[in-house]
From TrEMBL:
This is Uncharacterized protein.
């Protein structure tokens, strides 16, 4: 599930590792659910506990890593947290 938005400012988040990844190198900075995500002058998002959030740059990187072409207009993305390990 992807919720696309427009522009985002810096935020703090956890780190995620791919399952079976032995390099221990964080790939994306996930924001755990149960928190408020600042979307800059646009708004705030009350992120439910069952979800995780990626900011604009991590959303672009995730799309690129999955061989998709980012539009450049997304301010972030929201995903169900069930298969994502945030540390």
């Amino acid at each position: 599930m992807l919720l696309a938005m427009g522009v985002i400012f810096g935020m703090k988040g956890g780190q995620v590792f791919a399952e079976g990844d032995t390099s221990n190198t964080p790939k994306y900075n996930w924001v755990k659910g149960g928190t408020k995500v600042d979307l800059g002058t646009t708004s705030n998002l009350d992120l439910g506990t069952d979800f995780v959030f990626l900011n604009a740059s991590d959303t672009k990187q995730l799309l690129t890593d999955n061989h998709e072409k980012p539009s450049g207009t997304k301010i972030g993305s929201v995903y169900l947290a069930m298969n994502i390990s945030v540390q």
